[in-house]
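Contributing new records

If you add data, match the layout below exactly. Sequence lines come first and carry their own label; structure lines follow with theirs. Keep one chain per record. Anything else will be rejected by the validation script.
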Amino acid sequence: MPISVVEDIKSVSELKKKTNEIFKQLHQTGRPIVVTVNGKPNAVLMDVEIFEKKLKALNLSALLVEAEDDLRNGKTRPARDFLNGLSDGKKVQR
């Protein structure tokens, strides 16, 4: 969801004066609000549910990067070996 330059950039004084209206817009549109101080971007307000979804995606990305590094560095083993180790009750090694 792209930010609307006209609607989604607010000064900190606007935020102070129109807090309820800005939060209503934030929740209705799902778009983040960029808050400026002295005309420069300073902070971003975001709906909590959308933030949590983005955070989960970011965390998943980090895990995928780690897994890809393991693949590149040969830190893997066949799934069958892993599963056999589980059924034998052996301690699983990473």
